[in-house]
Design a protein that fits this description.
Length: 126
């Protein structure tokens, strides 16, 4: 039991160091927009459960909580994916990886365009 607790504590400290070292700039407004565009879990489509922020590229693999790396995931998908590479995980779970990737690219482009437009409006002289 002691070894398990210390292992968990070390893992928590490693995660905290990774999080502190990464630039995480996802705003509440961006998260709201992401959830609205996906309309449910990005992986399984569930819309009747609370959604969590999931990094497509895991924090442990160099990912960050940013507009172009976060998708909504139900707790079951988020826990199952853990820090796996998303396409390998989807293949293993027999989920439609092509449909996910096509939708991810489309939604990501829409979000980044909206973000760029709002940035240019904010920067415009008045």
């Amino acid at each position: 039991m002691v070894a398990s607790n210390s292992r968990r504590a070390r893992a928590a400290r490693r995660r905290k160091r990774r999080m502190d070292g990464a630039q995480n700039d996802l705003t509440t407004q961006e998260w709201t927009a992401i959830r609205a565009l996906w309309g449910g879990c990005a992986y399984c489509g569930a819309s009747d459960r609370p959604l969590q922020r999931d990094c497509v590229m895991a924090i442990s693999r160099g990912g960050r909580y940013t507009l172009d790396n976060v998708v909504p995931a139900c707790a079951a998908c988020n826990a199952s994916k853990c820090n796996d590479e998303v396409t390998a995980w989807m293949r293993r779970k027999r989920l439609d990886e092509r449909a996910f990737l096509e939708r991810y690219v489309g939604i990501r482009a829409e979000l980044l365009e909206a973000s760029a437009n709002s940035s240019s409006v904010d920067a415009a002289p008045r």
